[in-house]
Amino acid sequence: MESPKPAAPSVIALADELTGRGWRRSRKGARIAALAVSLVAAVVVFGLFNRFGTPPKGEVKPERQLVASVDLSIGNPVVSAEKGEARARADIEAGKLELHVYGPAPSEDDNAQARRLKQRYGITRVYKGKTGPEVALAFADGYNRVMRAEIERRHGRELADRLLPRRDAAMPVAAPASKEAP
Hints:
By secondary structure, the protein is mostly helical. The protein has 2 domains: 11-52; 77-168, no CATH class. It is built from 7 helices and 2 strands, in the order H-H-H-E-H-E-H-H-H. The protein has helices at 9-19, 28-52, 77-93, 108-120, 134-155, 157-163, 167-170, and strands at 97-102, 123-129. A two-stranded parallel sheet has the order 1-2. Strand 1, helix 4 (108-120) and strand 2 (123-129) form a beta-alpha-beta unit. The N and C termini lie far apart (146 Å). The relative contact order is 0.09.
């Protein structure tokens, strides 16, 4: 007994298509989605070409300019000295007396003197190194100028002169220029 021969697969697929119960689903939704994605991609590509492309030969667009603000007080020694003076006033109000010193490394005698200053007068010497940039030197100069005045007020001119000699006393004064031509 032979079993009936199955029908050819193509015949079954054709019959399913004709009756509407086929294994293939409608592709209408996929086609609409593909069309929408392709339209969005085309708009993006044309938008990028318009933004980054070269302008037509007759049209000249000005270049975009970089607008920035520059803080001129960053490298300015005068402003740095003012900041040093303000910091010194704040330290005085906080009860600290410090001197910022640039120069060679402190020796044992300097360390002993610094301990005596701290113990007797409450003055601390802060060594900043051999040298520094002009802005740092200006900051220390402004700081020490205010601190020198406070040390002079509290402990007298002799101690202030010993710790920080006045700059104007050490600098020679230029003779006034004569009005007559030689």
